[in-house]
Design goal:
It is a single chain. By secondary structure, the protein is α/β, with parallel strands linked by helices. It folds into 3 domains: 352 residues, Rossmann fold; 32 residues, no CATH class; 60 residues, no CATH class. 35% of the residues lie in helices and 15% in strands. The protein has 18 helices and 15 strands. The protein has an 11-stranded mixed beta sheet, with helices on both faces. It has a two-stranded antiparallel sheet with strand order 1-2. Strand 13, helix 11 and strand 14 form a beta-alpha-beta unit. The longest helix is centred in the first third of the chain and has 18 residues. The protein is elongated and about 95 Å long. The structure holds S-adenosylmethionine. S-adenosylmethionine binds next to strand 14. S-adenosylmethionine (SAM) binds next to strand 14.
Length: 499
């Protein structure tokens, strides 16, 4: 029997509060097959065969509630510059790095952070149809839009009245996303379409028989245009592109010396020549890295900034990693120190790293295993005072802390339970998560029922191991999970309405 956990589920209220679709005969809205879909399914490397292992559960209220209800968090560890310490409680001041599928995590964050987040920056899969990413980046357009819509609806709910959201994207989906965001946030909350020139042209890129592609798009929306925080940004001399390249400056200096100018005079002339006629400051435009005032490395791509996590940690690369200077520009414009910054496609943690160094509170969410091997390791270095990214620019010396945790998952508990296949099957059936059999086929209970007993155990074990099964917050006291008292207390407090 389920024990009283003190955790309420307000999914129904969330669903009732969804923004109304654009109305009126003259309004334009984006339609696609299965628009109202609540797609459940894995989004990692193993589940590339999307949409086969996605299930649309629209019209099944209980299944929708299961997907969108708060889940349990587990494995809390607090990290500061001296290493790990016990985490017996969470405070609203805590920074959080959460490993888990972001729709589940957003549903979990909702009760505590609803209307509290000042800035959301996300850098989701661009839907490039490329297999070259560790995570899934190959959706049908309809599935990608449903995937984004669900997460944007939660994002909207989490934003504070003065909050903003920035979505980094490229040509593959930018224009569909713009219409979707108009619908979710309202056209009046559209703020800017930022064109971010991402790099210099080099060999491979220049071969296309076409104009060379060289920008990402960042869509910037507010929660409420009248109340949005915006700190107007200026470029200063530090950001300006130098008038002369190093080789040109050297040649000009040599010429001046040949003309008889002393070395010290040459230095003074060169300094003046580099800056003469430049403004003291220049407001940041919505085209980044493309004017003579905004030199490429002011918001550089990571390879130029030399801060790729693979280099920093000696690990694999997180493809698509953004630079801390890019994040600094976004964070400083749309939040103030102490505000909460959220990135639920955190990747290597660039948003979290920059937010931490800039004195913001932050929440990062990443589904892949590298949340523990890369993102966590990077953030440990940040609190210890790393010297990369924006550290020098902002005088970062280290400090602060964060809590790492993850979505609790039934898999381990079920596999360790030793229950007979019948009992185990009963439990798994009731949980309702199984999507595939771990060997490329959709899970089918009637096929399972027809198997001999011995094969049932093998089939079920394989399927359980292959399908993430987040634990509903209401199941906290199930003895099979063996959560510690501290974990139970943190989860109950986390889901309590009284912050
Ligand atoms: C382009 S990368 C983000 C890179 C990041 N901006 C950085 O600087 O490192 C997108 C990330 O989103 C993660 N992701 C995709 N779908 C997700 C989901 N449903 N839940 C959580 N993370 C997800 C991927 O695993 C990947 O790490």
């Amino acid at each position: 029997m389920r024990r009283e956990t003190g955790i309420r589920d307000d999914t129904a209220a969330f669903l009732a509060d969804l923004p109304a679709p654009a109305g009126g005969a003259r309004d334009v809205s984006l339609e696609w097959p299965g628009k109202g879909a609540w797609l459940e399914g894995g989004l990692g490397h193993d589940e590339r065969a999307v949409p086969r292992f996605h299930r649309d559960i629209e019209g099944e209220p209980q299944q929708v509630a299961r997907l969108l209800s708060p889940k349990l968090l587990t494995g809390f560890t607090r990290w500061d510059g001296d290493g790990a310490t016990d985490c017996a409680a969470l405070s609203p001041q805590d920074n959080l790095l959460i490993r888990g599928e972001n729709l589940q995590v957003l549903a979990t964050l909702r009760r505590r952070y609803r209307g509290q987040v000042t800035l959301i920056y996300i850098d989701p899969p661009y839907n490039t149809a490329s297999g070259g990413f560790a995570y899934n980046d190959r959706f049908t357009r309809a599935d990608w839009l449903s995937f984004m819509r669900a997460r944007l609806l939660f994002a909207r709910d989490l934003l504070a009245p003065n909050g903003s959201i920035y979505v980094n994207i490229d040509f593959n989906e930018a224009h569909y996303l713009k219409v979707l965001m108009d619908e979710v946030f309202g056209p009046s909350n559209f703020q800017r379409e930022i064109i971010w020139r991402i790099g210099w042209l080099s060999g491979f890129k220049t071969r296309a028989k076409n104009f060379i592609r060289n920008h990402d798009t960042i869509l910037f929306y507010s929660r409420d245009a009248e109340r949005m925080t915006f700190n107007k940004a200026y470029l200063g001399p530090h950001d300006f592109a130098p008038r002369f390249k190093p080789a040109e400056a050297a040649e000009l200096s040599a010429t001046l010396e040949r003309e008889g100018l002393a070395k010290s005079a040459v230095r003074r002339v060169m300094k003046a020549a580099q800056s003469i006629g430049l403004p003291a400051r220049y407001p940041v435009e919505d085209v980044w890295n493309a004017s003579s005032y905004d030199r490429l490395n002011s918001v550089a791509i990571t390879s130029y900034a030399g801060e790729s996590v693979s280099k920093l940690l000696g690990t694999q690369e997180v493809k698509g990693q953004k630079s801390e200077s890019l994040m600094k520009r976004v964070i400083e414009a749309s939040s103030d120190p102490g505000d909460i910054v959220l990135d639920f496609f955190a990747g290597s943690g660039s948003t979290c790293a920059a937010a931490h160094k800039l004195g913001r509170r932050w929440i990062g969410v990443e589904q892949m295993d590298y949340a523990s091997t890369i993102t966590l390791e990077r953030m440990k270095k940040v609190v210890a005072g790393d010297r990369v990214g924006i550290s020098k620019r902002v005088g970062w010396q280290g400090g602060g802390s964060f809590v790492f945790c993850q979505l609790a998952d039934w898999r381990e508990a079920l596999l360790a339970s030793g229950e007979n296949p019948d009992a185990l099957a009963g439990r798994v059936r009731a949980l309702g998560w199984l999507l595939h059999d771990g060997a490329g086929e959709a899970w089918d209970w009637s096929r399972f029922d027809a198997l001999p007993d011995a094969e049932q155990r093998i089939a079920l074990t394989r399927a359980i191991a292959a399908n993430p099964m987040p634990v509903a917050a209401g199941d906290a006291h199930d003895p099979l999970l063996a959560l510690t008292d501290a974990e139970n207390a943190i989860n109950t407090a986390f889901q309590s309405a009284d912050r």
